[in-house]
Amino acid sequence: MPLALLALAIGAFGIGTTEFGVMGLLPQIAGSYGVSIPTAGLLVTGYALGVVVGAPLMTVLGTKVSRKNMLMLLMGLFTVGNVLSALAPDFPLLLAGRIVTSLAHGAFFGIGSVVAAELVAPSKKAGAIATMFTGLTVANIVGVPLGTFVGQVVGWRITFGAVAALGVVGLLGIAKLVPALPRPEGAHLRRELAAFRNTQVVLAMAMTVLGFGGVFAAITYIAPMMTHVAGYSDGAVTWLLVLFGVGMFLGNLLGGRFADRRLMPMLYASLGGLAVVLALFTLTAHTKVLAAVTILLIGALGFATVPPLQKRVLDQAHGAPTLASAVNIGAFNLGNALSAWLGGLVISAGLGYTAPNWVGAALAAAALVLAFWSAALERRGTHPVRTTDLTATPETRTRVHH
């Protein structure tokens, strides 16, 4: 494994810790500023929306910068955002710090995926992407529980300060270990935007929104579901989330291993399995042991889709993968926001705390349908305009077509 992948994984660990860690600190933060828990929840919503906006924005701004330098700038922005959060004297400034931090998220994973894939042989690209995302999954096993514990015992500001220090470590690691890869010849904004004319790129992103939406439809409401339906104590929810993180870790490794061999079959299996498990969760949520096993499976099947979906976007975007890769990271967060909203609707309608599981199953099943449709288009030989052709001269295009 190239050591550069370790540097990317450290950055991913810090980002994962700051993204999910705040969920366990909302009561402490709300108490510090005298705001309600729902108001403090804006720190989660604001972050997710910042990722959706920041992924394409920061990537576009970085089209004239080498990928290594852009990754360093993003880790610098991430560090500044967490320092601002740690020192924020009032809630609006804390929210601003969260948004600043989130702007680096999507572009880091998007550009980092491209860099990771370029560091290894073509047959190992999905595995390299999975290695980088291992940092994100380990964050949910170690970083989030540890950050929550530190925040509850010592103070939530210390947690943000520690994450800022992780950002510095990630920045230095990238500076030292990531090679100065040359920018692709002819890379510019028009070329990157052209990737979205490819139907397969759009379908892969839609699969990302729906598939990951299926995961977070259930996980967003895991606390009330486990305490009110399964009968777990409030304190046990933290360990159930750790179990979910273990599933994420295992699924990410599995997805990276098999996506390099059989990408589409891996998507069929993971999305189909996810739809079935989420539907069964409406039943298993009533039993402690079965609920715990199901949570592990949801994490594993959900994150088994990450390497193949990200590689699918990179492959289909051809010579202009950077913006498409970053936007696909935003698609994960769009799926989170969409599913949380839909899950809240069915709970508000009086359908119970297990109702979001049906929403998740429907979203995952819809993603599976798109996967079959994408493969069918590919078998028929439907090839939208390649981004490499869009920057060619008319004479070159003539030679290609003839």
TrEMBL record:
PANTHER family for this protein:
CHLORAMPHENICOL EFFLUX PUMP RV0191, PURINE EFFLUX PUMP PBUE
Q: Sorted alphabetically, which keywords does the UniProt record give?
A: Cell membrane, Membrane, Transmembrane, Transmembrane helix
| Keyword flag Metal-binding | no
Q: Where in the cell is it found?
A: Cell membrane
Per the UniProt record, which residue ranges are transmembrane? 38-58, 70-89, 95-117, 129-150, 156-181, 201-224, 236-254, 266-283, 289-309, 330-352, 358-377
Q: Name one GO molecular function term.
A: transmembrane transporter activity
Per the record, membrane topology reads:
Multi-pass membrane protein
This protein's GO cellular component annotations are: plasma membrane
Q: Which organism is it from?
A: Streptacidiphilus fuscans
Superkingdom to which the source organism belongs:
Bacteria
Major place of localization?
A: membrane
The record's CDD domains line, in alphabetical order, gives:
MFS_NepI_like
Name it.
MFS transporter
Residue intervals of the Major facilitator superfamily (MFS) profile domain: 4-379
Q: Name one Pfam family in it.
A: MFS_1
